[in-house]
Design a protein that fits this description.
By secondary structure, the chain is an all-alpha fold. Helix content is 62%, strand content 2%. The protein is built from twelve helices and two strands; from the N terminus they run ββαααααααααααα. A two-stranded antiparallel ribbon has the order 1-2.
């Protein structure tokens, strides 16, 4: 049986970190002294506590779902800004003599019913879909976060009124609302579609932001800052917003793919973007009547839309798992 080390009082006193000391047993005192030494013989380095965001980034870099979806989205952004990098033709250049023809040299996706190159139109269609998705998500996130955050922080009558307004918007069917509102607009730009999505999309983000702010403002550090005389703006911007924004980011990331799908749906129904605009929804609508004779004209824009929506949903799921402390 190993011989127990003698108890030495001077080795059994440890600092509490609050200016005092506490009495430890011999084994605990020895453990305190055995700290790993650094390369120069001095005290070894200590791990610094990581914040929620650095911890989330540490997990995301090791998540294959995040890496794959991020690469797909990066590729979509690149071809949205510079579609000529991989498509040399014009999406509006058509030849009726080649209508519904299959794959050919220089035209890997074949031609649609109007004789337009499906490959070129699929590449250029990413610009419209990504632009609508990103701009609509930014508008929804900003408007919903501001209104929901203020309602959750101040409460009272403003919170009650906002809750009833969001209930009204939740009762409006999205597709039916788009058919009614966009059918009376003759503009052929993306802004009416973006405005419609922001109009009907902000209540969801508002509810998320409101609940997150209500949860965070009850924490001890917020109450301590309030007791020290911090103003409302300082409490919101310095203490509440950084800790309440994570759920909004997750929902907005997933919703971005949904908004891209919604734009394609509205364009398919004829109330979103209209020709000569280039959109996956327009191409799917134009190719649907000829699906038996030219299935390739429907397959490629539909596949591009599905991959894009799936990539954003996968990215949102990965971000949610990284930012949710309960999953650690």
């Amino acid at each position: 049986m190993p011989e127990q080390e003698p108890y030495e009082p001077e080795r059994a006193i440890a600092g509490t970190g609050m200016g005092g000391t506490m009495d430890l047993g011999a084994s605990e005192a020895v453990t305190l002294e055995k700290t790993p030494a650094g390369p120069d013989g001095g005290p070894g380095p200590r791990d610094k506590p990581r914040s929620l965001w650095s911890d989330a980034w540490h997990d995301l870099r090791r998540n294959p779902v995040f890496i794959i979806s991020a690469l797909v989205i990066l590729f979509l952004f690149v071809i949205s800004v510079w579609p000529s990098l991989i498509a040399s033709g014009s999406p509006l250049e058509c030849d009726l003599a080649k209508a519904q023809e299959g794959s050919q040299s220089g035209h890997p996706f074949g031609f649609n019913g109007q004789g337009c190159d499906v490959y070129t139109r699929t590449v250029y269609g990413a610009r419209t879909s990504v632009a609508v998705g990103v701009l609509a998500t930014l508008g929804v996130a900003v408007l919903g976060s501001v209104l929901g955050g203020l309602a959750g922080f101040f409460g009272g009558a403003g919170d009650a009124v906002l809750s009833r307004i969001t209930d009204v918007f939740f009762a409006i069917p999205v597709v039916l609302g788009g058919l009614v509102l966009l059918s009376v607009i003759t503009s052929n730009t993306v802004w009416p579609v973006i405005g419609f999505i922001v109009l009907l999309g902000w209540p969801q983000i508002s509810r998320i932001a409101r609940g997150s702010v209500i949860t965070v403002k009850q924490n001890d550090y917020v109450q301590a800052a309030r007791a020290l005389g911090a103003s409302h703006s300082r409490l919101l911007l310095r203490h509440i917003a950084p800790n309440a924004i994570a759920p909004v980011i997750v929902v907005a990331t997933i919703a971005l793919g949904t908004y891209i799908s919604l734009e394609a749906t509205l364009s398919f129904l004829g109330v979103g973007l209209k020709p000569p605009s280039v959109s996956w929804g327009i191409d799917i609508s134009a190719a649907a009547p000829y699906v038996r004779n030219a299935p390739h004209a429907l397959l490629w824009p539909s596949g591009a839309l599905a991959i894009t929506v799936l990539a954003f949903i996968m990215l949102g799921d990965a971000v949610r798992d990284a930012l949710d402390p309960k999953l650690r």
